[in-house]
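Fill-in record for Protein FrlC.
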Amino acid sequence: MKIGMFTSGYQRNPLEDIFKDAKRFGYDYIELWGGRPHAFAPDLKAGEINEIKRMVDKYQIPVIGYTPEHNAYPYNFMIGSELQRQDAVNYLKLSMDMGKEMGADFTLMSPANAGYLATSEEIWKRLIKTMRELTEYAEKIQHKIVLEALTPFESNVCKSANDLADIFKEVNSPWLLGMCDVVPPFLQHESIMAYFDKLGEKMYHMHIIDSDGNSDTHVLPGEGVLPLQEMLQELKEIGYEGTATLELVTAYINEPRFYARRAINNIRNLMK
């Protein structure tokens, strides 16, 4: 299993810190958060992608996943007018272009909250319409989309393995794949390992982190209440050899290098 560094916690640090730390701490790859100041897709398109490529070459650390910010302002394809939805779709198409250009294997997407007044029928119609548009573009440029389920604190759209499986029935493409962030199923008393059974070959990627059991807060591995050691043993026994990003987000933004180092050291100890 390859272990990756997530980078949103480094947004107050220079870009080079990300690659330097991933290299010296022993991460296998980077999952690059697509927000300013480091990797906002329009900035990359304007020429700043060359700095990403330079860092990849300099430190010999690949960017395997590109995760554009689209769960909040100003992009969320699940809420607002049709003009706003299409603007978010165009942004994600550009993000896929940039992900492919930087050499990423996939661009990660997660349907955000559709608003309190949206009905289940309206949510599903908008979700499938959007994912079809994005998947058609992914097929055209031959770049994978990895779709993530979120917690109920974050979204009322796609929150479980069943939700992902239902989407894949409607939008059937080898370029649209799924993943498991371990916090959403753990919070909802859903089986983490059921993602592998329900998604089968579509189960492509993981976010591994710990949980406080009460919120969507992402806690350092081994420092929450999730039985990570036993989960890692299960992943080894089923032969999971894919990618697993340690998704530290902004809870540790004050000292990202301290916690990025501690996160991978904790995971290594749990995997022994």
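KEY FINDING: The beta strands are 2-6, 29-34, 63-68, 106-109, 144-147, 176-181, 203-208, 210-211, 218-219, 243-246.
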